[in-house]
């Protein structure tokens, strides 16, 4: 089964283009058990978290409004239910008490699609996939004061109970296969896998099928998105690169558009097929699948802002369409009560719904299951602790400090200020440290942190002594002591407030090193702007 298909072949493509099979695999696209499939079908694994979380947020907004609940109080009877049974230790520990954690997934299931919807998407009823290429965790504290949506890349290399290490999106499929087709077993195994990874007790499970987002985006009349550059099909064979949703397949044939996207630079009002293409596109984006995750979070923000603006809820026709779209596309666990969840989330606004991604530690193209994304498992406990209001930093235990002359420090600038890595590296060298400065990234974090691998606590303490105010965190995701500069302004005091010119990797004591990936960027639903 090929789970790498990420777009649908729109009906406007030529019969020859619609008939092609296979896929050129960019970064992180490898899958186990790949095989080609019939022409004209939706590319599997396409469903991203946008439609799913939009459905859940839509549901809570709808139920939470007096008009919607009074008029449609029985609509939840139409939602399909699935019985979840988990076996992880996280459920017993329940580290976040009465908070709600809802696992939200999606796959290319077309059981609920009408013939008209399938025709509109240019696909057929068969050929769907159980691979959950969308996985998000919606965390809502007991007081309902905020909500955080955590994304999990589909290719995250994790331990799946009973199956060893594999890509995260195979957990659901493994569970279904183990139970000879029981979808509840697939949902349970995926839940166990993510509970083991995060340490959180997952209270509920929600799944949305292929047509969920298509229906919801139509029901709300679309939303406005702003693109940094135009996104379109190729205009001639062989045209690929940034902005072109095209590529070569395994058999050497060329596909001019995988998702069917055709949007201009700047503002676009999108709905239906173009909204689906916007959240599906992976080819032609600078960071591939990771840019696609940013798009899903961006689109979710726009959906939530529109839902909470009141226009949809006060229009009886739009409200009815939205209710139908939500209820016809959802599968929930047996105990999730939409009314109770809506009551808990009734005070949410765009400014207190945030989106983030599990801490990552780079890629491994040579794993036993192909190209994978590595999760920074050492940073996950601190990440989760911060999420639920704990203290994320783990301080070194050694009371002594190393001689600066024996310590090499990797300096990473994850702030909005350019050049700080150069100034801080220079200041550290003046204090006797050796330094490395990796290529700049677009990551932004709030707090300056000194990360260090196991066994390097004395070296980390030596750096902490000259960077007062920096947090200390042991991490398996770094191979050397790493000073991650954040937006809080904490740095080597002698570095000054300004950046300076970029350091050359050939400077004394410096060499090239990979950047830290343990600090995911967090955004909230009130933020707009433009996106890749």
TrEMBL record:
Source domain of life is Bacteria
Q: Which residues cross the membrane?
A: 46-72
Q: Which Pfam family, giving just one, matches this sequence?
A: LytR_C
- Bias (Low complexity): 494-518
Q: Where is the LytR/CpsA/Psr regulator C-terminal domain?
A: 406-488
Keywords in alphabetical order: Membrane, Transmembrane, Transmembrane helix
Q: Where is this region: Disordered?
A: 1-38, 492-532
All copies of domain Cell envelope-related transcriptional attenuator, residue ranges:
131-308
Stored PANTHER family: POLYISOPRENYL-TEICHOIC ACID--PEPTIDOGLYCAN TEICHOIC ACID TRANSFERASE TAGU
Similarity comment: family membership: Belongs to the LytR/CpsA/Psr (LCP) family.
- Report the protein name in the record: LCP family protein
Q: Whose protein is this, by species?
A: Jatrophihabitans lederbergiae
């Amino acid at each position: 089964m090929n789970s790498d298909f990420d777009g649908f072949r729109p009906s406007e493509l030529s019969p020859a283009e619609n008939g092609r099979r296979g896929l050129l695999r960019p970064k992180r696209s490898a899958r186990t058990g790949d095989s080609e499939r019939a022409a004209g079908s939706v590319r599997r694994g396409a469903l991203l978290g946008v439609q799913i979380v939009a459905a859940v947020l839509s549901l809570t907004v709808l139920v939470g409004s007096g008009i919607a609940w009074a008029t449609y109080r029985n609509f939840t009877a139409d939602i399909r239910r699935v019985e979840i049974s988990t076996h992880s230790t996280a459920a017993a520990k329940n580290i976040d008490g009465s908070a709600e954690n809802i696992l939200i997934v999606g796959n290319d299931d077309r059981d609920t699609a009408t013939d008209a919807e399938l025709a509109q998407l240019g696909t057929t009823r068969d050929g769907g996939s159980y691979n959950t290429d969308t996985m998000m965790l919606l965390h809502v504290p007991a007081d309902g004061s905020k909500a955080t949506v955590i994304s999990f890349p589909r290719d995250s290399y994790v331990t799946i109970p009973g199956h060893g290490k594999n890509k995260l999106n195979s957990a659901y499929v493994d569970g279904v296969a183990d139970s000879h087709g029981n979808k509840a077993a697939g949902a349970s195994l995926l839940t166990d896998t993510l509970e083991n990874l995060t340490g959180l007790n997952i209270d509920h499970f929600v799944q949305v099928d292929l047509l969920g987002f298509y229906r919801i985006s139509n029901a709300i009349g679309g939303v406005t998105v702003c693109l940094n550059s135009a996104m379109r099909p190729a205009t001639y064979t062989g045209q690929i690169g940034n902005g072109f949703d095209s590529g070569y397949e395994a058999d050497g044939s060329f596909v001019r558009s995988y998702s069917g996207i055709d949007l201009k630079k700047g503002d676009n009002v999108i709905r239906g097929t173009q909204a689906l293409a916007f959240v599906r596109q992976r080819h032609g984006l600078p960071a591939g699948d990771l840019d696609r995750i940013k798009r899903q979070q961006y689109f979710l923000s726009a959906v939530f802002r529109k839902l909470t603006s009141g226009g949809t809820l006060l229009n009886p026709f739009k409200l009815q369409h939205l209710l139908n779209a939500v209820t016809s596309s959802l599968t929930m666990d047996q105990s999730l009560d939409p009314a109770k969840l809506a009551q808990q989330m009734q005070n949410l606004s765009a400014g207190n719904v945030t989106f983030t991604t599990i801490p990552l530690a780079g890629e491994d193209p040579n794993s036993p299951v192909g190209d994978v994304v590595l999760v920074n498992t050492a940073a996950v406990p601190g990440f989760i602790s911060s999420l639920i209001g704990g203290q994320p930093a783990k301080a070194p235990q050694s009371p002594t400090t190393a001689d600066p002359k024996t310590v090499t420090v990797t300096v990473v600038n994850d702030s909005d200020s350019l050049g700080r890595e150069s100034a801080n590296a220079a200041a550290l060298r003046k204090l006797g440290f050796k330094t490395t400065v990796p290529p700049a990234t677009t990551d932004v974090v709030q707090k300056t942190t000194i990360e260090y691998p196991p066994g390097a606590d004395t070296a980390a303490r030596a750096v902490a002594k000259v960077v007062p105010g920096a947090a200390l965190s042991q991490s398996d995701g770094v191979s050397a002591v790493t000073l991650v500069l954040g937006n809080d302004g904490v740095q080597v005091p002698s570095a000054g407030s300004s950046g300076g010119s970029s350091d050359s990797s050939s400077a004394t004591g410096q060499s090239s090193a990979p950047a830290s990936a343990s600090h995911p960027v967090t955004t909230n639903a009130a933020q707009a702007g433009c996106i890749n």
